[in-house]
């Protein structure tokens, strides 16, 4: 019997038979450049199939077959030895079953613990009154008025923001929903989406965590009391939430993103871990924020400029710059492809309105210099050839280069 029919008889692939041959589990005869599987091979294959059902490893099966080949199973002692092997395997499986039973019990306890934590989470928070002096019309830069509000304590949960020029925004469940939500200019997918988490690669997560920790170390060294810290386009990734409880409790935090599920999930996560923080959540797909100009002290770039650059031709800082103080700092991370990469061409195909230099090595430098910002510190943190299909423009096999940076106005130091 040749290898094809032999494999078919035992319902396995020919490559599996070849692997068994390589390990010495099967030893067929060779005739005229073809392997022929005789009755002995069939007996050995029957043993292999049976022992696999008993959860024997291939190494253990090889030991079993080797004993059979040496002794030919010619007397009672030989069979007694095989019986002992089976008994030892049974004891091993009994131990494994007990271990699995203990693990299942521990998992049940952990599930109960997590469910209890969820049910004892703090109450939902609204917009702190502290943010009211910062809420300005992005069109004419006049203070926004409030109407039809629902408040509790010093927080706003529902209401309307409006300006005499016609600008309007809604407050729903403590989130500001602006009218600047172009469905064609934002990514409908977000990092907390369970389906996205299934396809994003560990290499991308690891590089992002490394970048996040780099940003954290810089923020911790700063005096953040009464400072306004903004992280936009949080849908692709978000940094601040990982360590926000370790930062200054007196700071003002603003998160802006284009997907409501992401904002709600982020809001819930932060409220459960540190409900006393002053945070404003904005549903906005651009950088035309309903915030007073020259109010922002720090911008956190969690690939935010890259994300904005997918849907807008102007450089992000040309829009964001008026919101920043003269002494503002930008701390964040970005990634790029070398010139000529197919991923750049694919990005332009998927995002025809993208900034021409987005995802190129000079994009962040050009973007910052458009607002007279310069990089003072920079660190290359790694690369990946497979960020996952979450990054839809990435061409498999090409290298994405990741780096972190600190920028501010002044003479160039990097």
Automatic annotation (TrEMBL):
The lineage of its organism: Bacteria, Bacillati, Bacillota, Bacilli, Bacillales. InterPro entries: DNA-bd_dom_put_sf (IPR009061), MerR-type_HTH_dom (IPR000551), MerR_fam (IPR047057). PANTHER family: MERR-FAMILY TRANSCRIPTIONAL REGULATOR, REDOX-CYCLING DRUG-SENSING TRANSCRIPTIONAL ACTIVATOR SOXR. Pfam families: MerR_1 (PF13411). It comes from Siminovitchia fordii. Residues 1-67 form the HTH merR-type domain. Keywords: DNA-binding, Repressor, Transcription, Transcription regulation. It comes from the Bacteria. Coiled coil: none annotated. This is HTH merR-type domain-containing protein.
